[in-house]
């Protein structure tokens, strides 16, 4: 028996229960791993509340990313072996001391990256990578706006985009978070509580607007995000921390300059093993080189996941948070 956090009904943080569960041995294509650290993400709250339905129903063990050690593997596995340090973004089930996981979702962690860093950067870091290198290919000629600049993805994306030479603008909700964003690649930071972010973007860009807006906030930043774009610019909606957009009007894209819009997810971009390896490899490279620093700013015991969720939803966290089994 192992300990895990399970959800038997959707709702607030109190539905996260610390329980004993049985765990079998890996079957074909599977590995059993012991977690050393687990990443906390806003995505986890979507499954907890029922905004995203649990793929296999309830009860549910939440969590999509972690790091640890391979304990055993099933038949047909050759790319990882017992004793390997690994990390992953994979199917739900990370909030547990140990788990079974499809082995093709595991990547080996380089020696220069510790387990807490690996666990906390896989989903956020690979998200930043696909956003900046595939959804819209950022270069030194790019001017971009990134909402929630002091969040986990935002702090990574700011450093990475600055490393690529882009002009990087970010929005935050407090002066403290503005300072944090500036220290992580953002040349211009807008406090949306005291400034109109659309007007400020126009000032910063001399009225030209941005090539791309990365928006994980949703309801509170729509349709303002569209007003920050140049004609033919791209709006990348990859989350909805303030709530879903319920009145999206496709005609607005025409009215505001023949804009492009996309709603990507990391899991599509890393579905193929080759894409996963390339994405993780790029992330490990920029972190290993020092171009991007991953700061684990909060740690909680896995048993205290409910408090971690309260703090995350209360916007009391910055950067990366990990749960420790």
Automatic annotation (TrEMBL):
One of its GO terms (cellular component) is cytosol. InterPro entries: ADH-like_C, ADH-like_N, ER, GroES-like_sf, NAD(P)-bd_dom_sf, QOR-like. Coiled coil: none annotated. Keywords: NADP, Oxidoreductase. GO terms for molecular function: mRNA 3'-UTR AU-rich region binding; NADPH binding; quinone reductase (NADPH) activity. Residues 11-323 form the Enoyl reductase (ER) domain. The keyword Oxidoreductase applies. SMART domains: PKS_ER (SM00829). Pfam families: ADH_N, ADH_zinc_N. The keyword Signal does not apply. NCBIfam families: PRK10754.1. This is Oxidoreductase, zinc-binding dehydrogenase family. It comes from Polymorphum gilvum (strain LMG 25793 / CGMCC 1.9160 / SL003B-26A1).
């Amino acid at each position: 028996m192992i300990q895990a956090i399970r959800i038997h009904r959707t709702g607030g943080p109190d539905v996260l229960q610390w329980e004993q569960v049985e765990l079998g041995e890996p079957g074909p294509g599977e590995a059993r791993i012991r977690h050393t650290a687990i990443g906390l993400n806003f995505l986890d709250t979507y499954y907890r509340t029922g905004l995203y339905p649990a793929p296999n129903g309830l009860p549910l063990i939440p969590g999509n990313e972690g790091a640890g050690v391979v304990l055993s593997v099933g038949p047909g596995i050759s790319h990882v072996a017992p004793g390997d340090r690994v990390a992953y973004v994979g199917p739900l089930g990370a909030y547990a001391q140990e788990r079974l996981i499809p082995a093709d979702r595991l990547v080996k962690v380089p020696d220069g990256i510790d387990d807490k860093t690996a666990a906390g950067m896989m989903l956020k870091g690979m998200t930043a990578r696909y956003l900046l290198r595939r959804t819209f290919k950022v270069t030194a000629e790019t001017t971009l706006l990134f909402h929630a600049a002091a969040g986990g993805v935002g702090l990574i994306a700011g450093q990475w985009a600055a490393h690529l030479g882009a002009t990087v603008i970010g929005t935050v909700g407090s002066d403290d978070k503005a300072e944090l964003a500036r220290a992580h690649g953002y040349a211009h930071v807008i406090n949306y509580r005291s400034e109109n972010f659309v007007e400020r973007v126009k000032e910063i860009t001399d009225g030209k607007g941005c090539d791309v807006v990365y928006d994980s906030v949703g309801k509170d930043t729509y349709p303002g995000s569209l007003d920050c774009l140049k004609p033919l610019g791209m709006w990348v909606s990859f989350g909805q921390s303030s709530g879903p957009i319920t009145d999206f009007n496709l005609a607005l894209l025409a009215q505001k300059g023949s804009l492009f819009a996309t709603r990507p997810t990391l899991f599509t971009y890393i579905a193929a093993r080759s894409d996963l390896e390339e994405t993780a490899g790029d992330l490990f490279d920029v972190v290993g080189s020092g171009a991007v620093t991953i700061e684990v700013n909060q740690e909680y015991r896995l048993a205290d996941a409910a408090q971690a969720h309260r703090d995350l939803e209360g916007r009391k966290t910055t950067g990366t948070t990990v749960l420790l089994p």
